[in-house]
Design a protein that fits this description.
With 241 residues, the protein is an alpha+beta fold. The longest helix has 21 residues. Helices cover 33% and strands 10% of the residues. The strands form four sheets. The protein has a two-stranded antiparallel ribbon with strand order 1-2. The chain has a two-stranded antiparallel ribbon with strand order 3-4. It has one domain. It starts with 10 loop residues before the first strand and ends in a 12-residue tail after the last strand. The chain binds zinc ion. Zinc ion binds next to helix 2.
């Protein structure tokens, strides 16, 4: 899950912009974060302004810029996040944590919690995974009635296959494809974490992915160490992620 930086509350005529209704924030959010679901990372022209803390949980945050992300209808829909209660201290969020560190992306577009995290960080990553159903795919016994057509998983799998298809063309002698080609494609497809994982051995691609996906928190990746993810909250010993 791509870690992002929320920009400060946009201003209008010298005061914080009004987001009543909250849907008015969509354009500003897309300028800040790109046209990607903040959770599943899909590129979409049909994103929703997503309340991190739902209107049911705290109506006072219903029009608050700092409480907004972008989400696809699937992640934000019933069965996934919807209006579930959220505790920011026990759940990793892409605007507060280095969520690229929280999860591992694997062949087939599968997502799992990073087993190398400490117990608390693993639990907090798991809570996010469950909130938006990032591990819903056919055959996962965790879900008693697995939806065999889970669209999120299917699109992520396709992105994985595409990245794997172009990897040898990037690596091959004579290099048919450049980092620019790869990232141009990734930007139109979404799934930052899939591309970043498949091109793990290629710093130029990773660097360009980080700088080209609008709103990515660059400080979450260490340029001196192959753009490996680094903890975003190092002063929190319980959960440095
Ligand atoms: Zn989504």
């Amino acid at each position: 899950m791509r870690p992002v930086i929320k920009s400060p509350w946009p201003q209008e005529n010298g005061s914080p912009k009004s987001y009543k209704p909250h849907t008015k924030a969509k354009n500003d959010l897309e300028v800040n974060l790109g046209t990607y679901c903040s959770y599943c990372e899909i590129f979409s022209s049909d994103l929703e302004v997503e309340h991190v803390i739902s209107k049911d949980q705290d109506p006072s945050l219903a029009h608050n810029w700092d409480n907004f992300l972008l989400a696809c209808g699937r992640c934000n829909g019933s069965g996934n996040k919807s209006n579930k209660t959220v505790d920011l201290t026990t759940m990793h969020f892409p605007h507060r944590n280095n969520t690229f560190l929280s999860f591992l992306y694997r062949e087939g577009g599968l997502v799992t919690v990073n087993p190398e995290l400490n117990n608390i960080s693993r639990a907090n990553a798991e809570n996010m995974l469950n909130l938006v159903g990032l591990d819903k795919y056919p055959g996962n016994s965790k879900y008693p009635n697995p939806n065999l057509n889970d669209s999120l998983w299917k699109h992520r799998r396709i992105a994985w296959e595409l990245a794997m298809k172009y990897l040898p063309e990037y690596e091959g002698e004579g290099g048919n494809l450049s980092a620019e080609h790869i990232v141009d494609l990734a930007i139109q497809k979404g799934f930052f974490s899939v591309w970043h994982t498949v091109f793990a051995n290629h710093q130029p691609v990773k660097e360009l992915l980080i700088s080209s996906f609008t709103g990515t928190d660059k400080n979450c990746f260490d340029p001196a160490n192959h753009y490996q993810p680094v903890p975003r909250n190092p002063d929190n010993p319980d959960d440095p992620v």
